[in-house]
């Protein structure tokens, strides 16, 4: 009877190999973008509140002026929720929405019923982070928030100065529902109402 051939067993992984494997796994988790909820209804870390303030100062304030009232509505009043998109240890995107269904007659032109109102959706540094998929993640998070609230539609107004934002949202499934001249602080402009339905 021929002797059985026994394959040599693989050497047990060294402790150093296991440590490297665990570190690589941890790094992959850390490197994945994730959302942090910021607002009166959430135990927000001061660093995340500061990041949100800085993002509003950098991106929103130049268009719409002082944002203290909007930030107060997020941090204190609780009628809005912010979700910071973080990646690589920094805030890369912002989503802010009213955390209840909205029904309104927008600029006396068209009605929006039982809709999630997006107040802000933007990539913090588009020059640095364009093409990395952060906008798509923010839009997916907005759709998830809509679903969490049991809603089938959401809406957002887009300033005509933000042509890239409007195109992005239209490409993401929003439809134009109306346009109106509005005044924010010293600046008059035209805004477009965009609506998305599931």
TrEMBL record:
- Which domain of life does the UniProt lineage start with? Eukaryota
UniProt GO molecular function:
acyltransferase activity, transferring groups other than amino-acyl groups
Quote any Pfam family the record assigns: Acetyltransf_1
Q: Which CDD domains match?
A: NAT_SF
Name this polypeptide is given: N-acetyltransferase domain-containing protein
- Residue ranges occupied by any N-acetyltransferase domain in the UniProt entry: 69-169
InterPro entries membership: Acyl_CoA_acyltransferase, GNAT_dom
